Amino acid sequence: MAGYQMPQIPNTNPETDITQTTTYKQALTFYDAMYDESFTDEVDGKEFRLYKGYLTNLFTSVIGSLNTYSKIRGRLASLGCIQILEAGARNFPSVVVLVQHPADADWEASAGGPKPRKKDLTDTPEYARLLAEVEGIKKRLGGVDLAEALSNIERRLVKVEKELHKTTGGDNGT
Predict the structure, then answer these.
(1) In whole angstroms, how far apart are CA 171 and each of 32, 81, 95, 162?
(2) Taking the CB of residue 128, how many other CB atoms lie within 10 A of it?
(3) Residue range 20-36, pLDDT digits in tens
């Protein structure tokens, strides 16, 4: 039987079928969890879906362990599914733009390495980064009206200068 070829059997092995792998399923679960807790915001007429929160806490709550967190987060970023605008820390949440669902990305092609980002995604992170920056500034100011605070300082400075002018008789040493 020299010319006989074995018939091709469809791939049903979950270890090699990319859509059945644990990593892929975890990525879908993680992305969906971020999406469920996300919000939309509009900047310059463009709408963005943003997740703001603690990524590792969310990952642990939906996956149960951090063993694959870095791998999955990195893969989602390299596929252009997410864009991390602000990496969080202990007391500061991360800000993430949700760009596209992993099911819409070429997960299998990315298995060998990062996939280059699409050109049409370049505007999205810039606007979202600005939005996150403005939110960060507002948060750091703690609700302070910066214009009013500066105006108050200016009024007080003018008052101090007038008092100084009165006590020095108009000669302030200049």
Answers:
(1) 70, 67, 55, 12
(2) 24
(3) 578 888 999 999 999 99
Structure tokens at 98: 């949700």
Within 10 angstroms of residue 8's Cβ, the number of other Cβ atoms is 6
Where are the domains positioned within the chain?
18-143
pTM equals 0.56
Cβ-contact 100, 34 below 8 angstroms: no
